[in-house]
Amino acid sequence: MSRSSSGAAAAARSIASGETSAEQVVRDCLDRIREREPAVGAWQWLDEQHAIEQARACDRLRDAGGPCGPLHGVPVGIKDIVDTADMPTELGTVVHAGRRPASDAAVVWALRAAGAVILGKTVTTELATYSPGKTRNPLDATRTPGGSSSGSAAAVAAGMVPLALGTQTNGSVIRPAGFCGVHALKPTHGALTLEGVLRVSPSLDTVGFFGTSLEDLELVCGALGAFAPAQPLAAPPRLAFVRTPLWPRTEPALRAAFDEMLERLGGDCEEWELPAALEPAWDWHTTIMEAEMAFHLRAEWDRRHELSPSLQGQLARGRETSAFGYQRAQSGAQALRSALGEVFSVYDAIVTPGTFGVAPLGLESTGDPAFCTPWSLAGVPACNVPLLKSPEGLPIGLQLVGARGADMRLLRIASWLEGRVGP
Amino acid sequence: MSRSSSGAAAAARSIASGETSAEQVVRDCLDRIREREPAVGAWQWLDEQHAIEQARACDRLRDAGGPCGPLHGVPVGIKDIVDTADMPTELGTVVHAGRRPASDAAVVWALRAAGAVILGKTVTTELATYSPGKTRNPLDATRTPGGSSSGSAAAVAAGMVPLALGTQTNGSVIRPAGFCGVHALKPTHGALTLEGVLRVSPSLDTVGFFGTSLEDLELVCGALGAFAPAQPLAAPPRLAFVRTPLWPRTEPALRAAFDEMLERLGGDCEEWELPAALEPAWDWHTTIMEAEMAFHLRAEWDRRHELSPSLQGQLARGRETSAFGYQRAQSGAQALRSALGEVFSVYDAIVTPGTFGVAPLGLESTGDPAFCTPWSLAGVPACNVPLLKSPEGLPIGLQLVGARGADMRLLRIASWLEGRVGP
User: Fold this and answer.
1) Which of A257, B104, B117, B345 has the most crowded CB, counting CB atoms within 10 A?
2) What average pLDDT score do residues A165-171 get?
3) B366-416 pLDDT, tens per residue?
4) Which of chain B's residues have a Cβ under 8 Å away from the Cβ of A324?
5) ipTM of the complex
6) Minimal CA separation from A254 to chain B, in Å
7) How many CB atoms lie under 10 A from the CB of residue A64?
């Protein structure tokens, strides 16, 4: 894993060695936020004093020789659909304005137990679906940061916080990471518990992370104790390039960037075609997501006049879905999982776009998640590796997809890829 | 566990000691079948020569000093919805007349690996649902044996085979065991794989067993290696008597038998009432079962004019079920599981009827499974303990229900109950 001189892992090392303090790390974040937040709008809730107090408690604990976890003093941003006992959690909708959870989500509790400073709550789209929040892309304020974990991706991309938690049901981690040019991991579905996280579509909902490097992602995965450790790669990984039927709709800049990368990879990457029988994967995902949203957001349905028209439409369609169609879609998802199980007995990882190109202009839409859909449906881990750029220097989503449960190994393969085709 | 001098466990012991041969045990079964089958009609397929050849192979293996499993030479009847590579598997419907599976169901393979002789295929109702097969109650040919595992229950009750495999989706093991007066276990849902078993409603479908004693059930559970062993009880178990809202509909003979048993149990059994919030359990079960049947029997739907009107009606209703209603029902099932988890932190087992009374007269219906429904929905193990009888001497279903995963412990509690209130 390549080492970064800034970021979460570097901060953890500097705090552990006494080179800096947790308070200093947090103050550096707050300085950067003061500078960049007016243009970016990544934060839904942030109390500087509360953040500094958490950092001071970390420093006191360290000075007293107390136990210091692997994230001791590291600031983390938390998507505002994840419960925090000491901060509001408003789920991106006026329906839940002022909502104060009684307790931390399990994953927040685990981050605190590992020593993390919960810096604040990041902007989410409406109920983690498609209607955008206030966040702008830090690389170009006229463009979307992507969604639904808009604030988490933008905050890391803007250098406001080295690590942030997001969630993905369709493309809500990998897509904004692709548009903002940060590292991100959507782990294997089910690896991290959803206790205390808004349930949108539990068959798909997955907690993930944004970081400044693969090392940051490895740090947080290791700290959470939910992932099997991976050995260093003994040999170059076998990679499969998957275009998917979406390929013709990609932007020319993406196709050029991929062509160049594939040329550099040469024999290390072969093309694999999604079997035609799996092409309904996008329909299966829609069916499952809308049906489950309709059930899990049933209380919100009662206040639907306060929801966006697009979400109302999704919920209405979900309420019309038949149990037969839902089971057919779940059965299709199972077929996709089986097929990928066979792919991953031959290849170590799939290389595929994470976005159709660069972040779209405008803030009305968070962009198309379709390149993330099959991997969300399959529940396999996916990683954004920000290696590719458009001629104007805007990031393009490069997604690496691994076998179920091989999350840490996927990070190692991403590291190999960075070494192989990085600048 | 009390020891029986006949039955599967006794046969296994006699064969292991050389006191008798597998061939002799099988020939005794075949003699009994020749005598009783014309009146009972428990078997869908049975080839005497094929059974004898399996038994001879067991004897040859033993004589040669080969490895002998815990069921070595023990004859087992298999419900005709469970695939067998060497026998037809017709699923109780003309739609699948003459069907020959390519391979054994996983559980059949496991029984063979443990040494069992697969004696033949037992009668099932139509696609393991409600429309009866030819089987009559061996204790009174004018009465139903119950269903859907009609042949398996009747074959054991008639002494034709000491052990038989059935399946339960609603009350298809516990109800026929109750009506036929045999021991039976419906294990924890998911403990035994359904690979090669007709899928009716996978959220509910469970493979179970009928035997001549608790010892027989313990033997087969141990042989399959899917159940945690249980220590002998250190103290009398704490029992909860649950009437359920069905109690007023029970027959007077059942109420009298339960009253007498509860009086004998005295302080060892307290009454526990199903919380009102769980009373929709029967509706949740219907919703899940019909929705899943509609999907998993979709190929049969295309030939629905060959199905019974009642099954056509179930499938039609299942096709109309909404994904919303299906998820609400699954969520209710989860609430039931949680509530039972709490019950089983206080009590070791639930005592409740398994039937409304004795086996109903007539063969048009297999009787009402409602007393089994909540435990099938919860996926907890349930056991029929044939201790209770009507004044005319017909068996009455006495069901013992245990905590998820505590299948072997449930058998020990049943054994304690037999000692405490048995004849």
Assistant:
1) B117
2) 98
3) 999 999 999 999 999 999 999 999 999 999 999 999 999 999 999 999 999
4) 291, 294-295, 298, 318-319, 321
5) 0.93
6) 38
7) 7
CA distance B292 to chain A (A): 8
Q: What is the dihedral of CA A406, A409, A410, A414, to 10 degrees?
A: 180
Two structure tokens written together for B20: 């008798």
Q: How far is CA B23 from the centre of its chain?
A: 27
At B372, which amino acid appears? Answer: C
Distance (Å, whole) CA B95 – CA A401: 44
* pTM attached to this predicted model: 0.95
In whole angstroms, give the CA distance from residue A364 to residue A143. 9
A332 touches chain B (CB under 8 A): no
A-contacting residues in B 271-330 (Cβ below 8 Å): 291-292, 294-295, 298, 318-328
Closest CA to A70 of A18, A16, A19, A32: A16
Q: Which CATH superfamily is domain A1-276+349-423 in?
A: Amidase signature (AS) domain (3.90.1300.10)
Tokens 């360290």 belong to A62
A172 annotated active-site: yes
* Burial zone of B66 (CB within 10 Å; 0-12 exposed, 13-18 middle, 19+ buried): exposed
Candidate from B298, B321, B331 with C-beta closest to A322:
B321
- CATH code of domain B1-274+353-423: 3.90.1300.10
SS3 A211: strand
Q: Contacts of residue A295 in chain B, CB cutoff 8 Å?
A: 323-324, 327-328, 331
Residue with tokens 């060959």: B306
Q: Does residue B3 have a pLDDT over 80?
A: no
